[in-house]
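User: tokens in, sequence out, please.
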């Protein structure tokens, strides 16, 4: 695929990274690029519900993964966070997992994903914003719930996915929302998608079992009937607020319906349509001929060509649009990728309806971007504890942290002048690693199910230890590749120097085809306790500070080099494009007329022909469908009196003709 902006490039990365490595930001990526994905149980390889998202907040934004115990609360005890949101706690809250921000960022916030002990899972949230007229009609509230508290305030309080929808709806009715968001709830029976549209307006739909979907940072729900209470939950003033803001759109005459996407969301940004396009192409490559990254509007759901697997969603979460689905596609713009290096964690919740609640959910969690970090499996409903490295937080590099183990390897691999030199082989290793985990999961499930039948009280302890063993193995693999890559860079004075024997960096474990040994018999053994002296801690902090300074200086130099390289690449691409255009016969679109007249309700055909574009499809589009519509074959139908422009496109060339309806 010809593309611009998918590679993070640079020259001569420094080697001051033994103590601290922070992430490299990709200059071509947008700052808001979280992407959710969903596959209904009838579309997946094993009949499970699969859903999740990537969390784009920053490449140097550490996360922890922990378990909150069940708790009993006194009457009047309040939930509070560092924002202004607060609410009364129920008498009892359930145990739940959360992948949240490092406490160094200001508290236990942004849980993002989790499962409670009753098998209810949440993925929250995608930031989304309504059109300005809606903000004026129903402003966000200062003390309303926000993404920061979505998981921690809701997940420990609910018994089912539908109860989660109703619980959040009640919060919004009572306290309002501080921002726009989208999120998902699921249990063994169903999955719900929830959109917080404005200060007090919301809509949620039960997700279809026979479809899959890609949902970026925008509202995606299409036409709904608010009286369909089995499949829809909506705020009472959802339609009237849209009417008040003069943005109401509905598909049909039923006054109980509203198209959420078109009413509250307005025009989709290309950064969103890019990602919908990329994800939908992976789900169904046959869409290549009918959708483009720049399409102005997308439906929420598609029918996958093949059954969806964990590997499918891992591919989507980490895609740079480099796989076979994108071959032959050209783009003159910098496209927003799903697998941005700004992702601080990515996840998939796989819920198997036929399994007992304690074992039904496997939470596949990646610390850092799924582009260069692996999904690891955890029986999240059964967990009572996680690996120490997943609880070791630090907003700067910490060798004891799982996040930094994966993030630092990814950052160093992207610092090479080309992804081909290191990152692509690391991505291949982790892809193979995830494949080995998925292949082993069925065998582990069989043994865990046997344990559940004979000794259900032992399931949580086994799930804890197994999760720690899986994490320990993957962290060790990341650190080994980090050491090998650091040595290769050091040997080349900060660059990967090609040799006849090894032109690129290839991890030794990739050469040896050594991947995960995931099995029921894995056992995690905690290391012996070690306490550093104050002098040792102070020395490490001093080293870290100096290394961070060195790294910042190197990043500045790298940014300058990247800009120079990008400018040179643009000039080269422009020159090549101009040369190619000179070589090719120019495409020409001809019509029998430049202006057509048709009566209201009548039809007229635009006769169009194309030169020098054999086999290319001609696309007709009306720029004013309220006046005139046009079919795929160029037949224009007059709708009402007025003027319209019909665009005729083929192979990147556009011709416009005028239509007058009398």
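Assistant: Sequence out:
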């Amino acid at each position: 695929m010809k593309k611009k902006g998918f590679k993070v490039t640079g020259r001569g990365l420094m080697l001051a990274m033994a103590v601290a490595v922070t992430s490299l930001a990709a200059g071509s990526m947008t700052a808001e690029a979280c992407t959710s994905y969903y596959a209904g149980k009838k579309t997946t390889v094993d009949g499970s519900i699969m859903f999740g998202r990537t969390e784009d907040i920053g490449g140097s934004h550490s996360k922890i993964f922990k378990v909150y115990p069940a708790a009993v609360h006194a009457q009047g005890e309040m939930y509070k966070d560092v924002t202004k949101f607060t609410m009364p706690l129920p008498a009892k809250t359930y145990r739940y997992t959360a992948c949240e921000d490092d406490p160094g960022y200001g508290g236990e916030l942004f849980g993002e994903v989790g499962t409670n002990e009753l098998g209810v899972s949440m993925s929250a949230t995608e930031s989304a914003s309504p059109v300005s007229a809606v903000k004026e009609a129903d402003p966000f509230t200062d003390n309303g719930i926000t993404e920061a508290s979505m998981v921690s305030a809701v997940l420990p309080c609910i018994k089912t996915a539908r109860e989660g929808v109703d619980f959040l709806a009640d919060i919004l009715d009572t306290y309002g929302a501080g921002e726009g968001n989208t999120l998902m709830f699921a249990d063994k029976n169903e999955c719900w998608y929830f959109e917080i549209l404005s200060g007090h307006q919301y809509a949620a739909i039960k997700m279809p079992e026979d479809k899959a979907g890609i949902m970026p940072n925008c509202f995606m729900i299409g036409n709904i009937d608010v009286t369909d209470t089995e499949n829809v939950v909506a705020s009472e003033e959802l339609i009237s607020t849209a009417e008040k803001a003069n943005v109401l759109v509905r598909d049909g005459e039923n006054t109980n319906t509203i198209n959420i996407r078109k009413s509250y969301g307005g025009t989709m940004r290309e950064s969103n349509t890019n990602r919908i396009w990329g994800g939908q192409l992976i789900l169904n490559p046959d869409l290549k001929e009918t959708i483009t990254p720049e399409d102005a509007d997308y439906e929420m759901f598609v029918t996958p060509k093949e059954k969806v697997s964990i590997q499918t969603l891992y591919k989507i979460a980490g895609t740079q649009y480099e796989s076979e689905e994108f071959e032959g596609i050209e783009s003159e713009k910098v496209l927003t990728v799903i697998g941005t290096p700004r992702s601080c964690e990515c996840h998939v919740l796989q819920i198997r309806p036929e399994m007992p609640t304690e074992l039904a959910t496997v939470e596949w969690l990646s610390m850092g971007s799924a582009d260069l970090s692996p999904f690891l499996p955890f029986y999240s409903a059964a967990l009572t504890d996680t690996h120490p490295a997943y609880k070791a937080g630090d907003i700067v590099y910490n060798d004891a942290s799982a996040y930094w183990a994966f993030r630092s390897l990814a950052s160093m691999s992207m610092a090479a002048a080309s992804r081909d030199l290191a990152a692509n082989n690391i991505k291949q290793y982790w892809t193979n690693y995830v494949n080995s985990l998925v292949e082993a999961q069925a065998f582990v499930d069989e043994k865990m199910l046997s344990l559940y039948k004979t000794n259900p009280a032992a399931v949580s302890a086994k799930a804890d230890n197994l999760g720690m063993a899986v994490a320990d193995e993957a962290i060790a693999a990341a650190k080994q590749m980090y050491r090998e890559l650091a040595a290769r860079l050091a040997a080349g004075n900060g660059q990967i120097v090609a040799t006849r024997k090894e032109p690129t960096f290839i991890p030794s474990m990739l050469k040896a085809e050594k991947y995960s040994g995931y099995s029921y018999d894995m056992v995690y053994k905690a290391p012996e306790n070690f306490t550093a002296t104050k002098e040792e801690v102070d020395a490490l902090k001093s080293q870290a500070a100096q290394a961070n300074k060195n790294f910042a200086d190197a990043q500045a130099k790298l940014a300058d080099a990247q800009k120079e390289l990008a400018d040179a690449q643009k000039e080269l691409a422009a020159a090549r494009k101009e040369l190619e255009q000179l070589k090719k016969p120019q495409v020409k679109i001809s019509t029998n007329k430049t202006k057509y007249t048709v009566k209201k309700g009548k039809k007229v055909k635009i006769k169009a022909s194309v030169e020098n574009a054999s086999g290319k499809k001609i696309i007709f589009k009306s720029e004013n469908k309220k006046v005139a519509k046009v079919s795929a074959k160029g037949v224009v139908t007059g709708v009402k009196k007025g003027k319209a422009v019909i665009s005729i496109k083929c192979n990147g060339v556009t011709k416009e003709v005028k239509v007058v309806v009398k």
